[in-house]
């Protein structure tokens, strides 16, 4: 992959901590998108140890990282300022079109190819007043340890697994993703427009950075920071569409105690 992006290339923007290096590698390995990654390391007694982990990670994976991944290091004494970290990754994106995504999600391998071949999507994004949602999925309880190499890569595979091993991220009744209209998505091969019908909507979607506001850095920690951003996007007049053949799947992992406390 060239280190010089084309006009229709996409950058995945995300943020990580030192315990998510392997998860990041999984994400990078499944797509040809560029990656702009904010790494937060607390300025505490483990700073030196964590910096050594970062150095080892880069040295070991330099060939994989060098052509398409930028890592932006944030060191401070404060808890993670999530919207600030998101904005750093966005600011340093190599492309105008970005796809903000939590690092523990995997995008289907054909996503970038599908995007580049869709003139309607590229045209709408070039104008800058549209976002395109990728439905979010997760494995049900007894299948949560499915290896990412065994994740479905086509919509046909998703349909065959849906309501068996695979389901809507956080459940069908979760307001954070209900506006995507999964029932419609499963039965169509066409892009469709949606209107967010809840203040809790927080999809995973790609957009042109020229038409979408940055995340509000007054919100810190966990709880409604991303929801507030998406609602601001909706109120600004941006149109929401759902891509019919692309999706993201959550990679299950245990949350450390510090995350639970946050």
Automatic annotation (TrEMBL):
GO terms for biological process: protein O-linked glycosylation via mannose. GO terms for cellular component: membrane. It is found in: Membrane. Signal peptide: none annotated. GO terms for molecular function: glucuronosyltransferase activity; xylosyltransferase activity. Keywords: Glycoprotein, Membrane, Signal-anchor, Transmembrane, Transmembrane helix. This is Glycosyltransferase.
């Amino acid at each position: 992959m060239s280190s010089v992006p084309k006009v229709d290339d996409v950058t995945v923007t995300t943020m990580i901590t030192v315990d998510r290096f392997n998860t990041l590698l999984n994400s990078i390995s499944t797509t040809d998108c560029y990656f702009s990654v904010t790494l937060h390391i607390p300025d505490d007694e483990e700073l030196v140890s964590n910096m050594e982990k970062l150095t080892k990670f880069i040295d070991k994976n330099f060939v994989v990282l060098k052509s398409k991944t930028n890592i932006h290091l944030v060191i401070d004494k404060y808890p993670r300022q999530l919207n600030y970290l998101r904005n750093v990754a966005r600011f340093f994106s190599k492309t105008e079109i970005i796809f903000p995504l939590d690092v523990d999600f995997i995008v289907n391998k054909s996503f970038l190819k599908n995007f580049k071949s869709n003139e309607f999507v590229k045209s709408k994004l070039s104008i800058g007043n549209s976002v395109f949602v990728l439905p979010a999925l997760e494995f049900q309880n007894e299948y949560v340890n499915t290896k990412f190499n065994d994740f479905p890569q086509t919509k046909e595979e998703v349909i065959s697994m849906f309501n068996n091993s695979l389901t809507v991220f956080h459940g069908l009744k979760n307001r954070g993703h209900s506006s995507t209209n999964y029932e419609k998505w499963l039965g169509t091969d066409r892009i469709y427009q949606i209107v967010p019908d809840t203040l809790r909507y927080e999809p995973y979607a790609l957009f042109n950075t020229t038409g979408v506001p940055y995340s509000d850095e007054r919100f810190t920690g966990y709880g409604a920071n991303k929801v507030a951003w998406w609602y601001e996007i909706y109120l600004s007049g941006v149109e929401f569409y759902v891509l019919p053949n692309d999706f993201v799947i959550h990679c299950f992992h245990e949350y450390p105690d510090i995350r639970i406390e946050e």
